[in-house]
Design brief:
Layout: H1 6-13, H2 24-31, H3 36-40, H4 45-54, H5 59-87, H6 92-116, H7 123-147
């Protein structure tokens, strides 16, 4: 159904002992720590696992699974940002907060544009959810690289 991440699914199941509650996506990111290009290969992994569990690739399922993955990336992004904020001084700290606010506004606008292109079509919800997932993942990877996170 979703073969593009087949190798990552295999990798995720064989990464060794995961910490309690750790997702395959978090394991993938951890394995590729400090290597943003490899972390980018993790994007979509949790969505694919979710879709396989559901046995569906219907638009609503794709959107819900993308949203599930977005929440994981959001958590990693927030942790990396918190680490950066704790270790920076003004004006760098204030600049990071401002940049993050601007990034949030950009993503809201861009993903709304993506959905609007569909009009009232059923693909709007899926395209919007995947847009948020991809944008959040890339921002999380960027902030994690700056923060040197995850550490181990």
């Amino acid at each position: 159904m979703w073969p593009r991440h087949g190798f990552l699914l295999l990798l995720a199941c064989c990464l060794g002992q995961a910490q309690a509650g750790e997702t395959a996506l978090e394991q993938c990111v951890q394995q590729a720590r400090n290597m943003p290009p490899q972390q980018m290969a993790c994007i979509g992994l949790q969505q694919d696992i979710c879709l396989q569990k559901r046995g569906s690739d219907a638009n609503l399922d794709m959107a819900q699974c993308a949203d599930e993955e977005t929440k994981i990336w959001q958590s990693m992004m927030n942790q990396a940002q918190a680490s950066l904020l704790a270790n920076e001084v003004d004006p760098i700290r204030a600049n990071l907060v401002a940049v993050q606010d601007q990034w949030n506004a950009y993503v809201e606008g861009y993903c709304q544009y993506r959905m609007d292109r569909w009009g009232r079509g059923s693909g709007a919800i899926t395209d919007g959810a995947v847009c948020y997932m991809n944008a959040t993942a890339l921002r999380a990877i960027d902030l994690m690289a700056d923060a040197g996170w995850p550490a181990n």
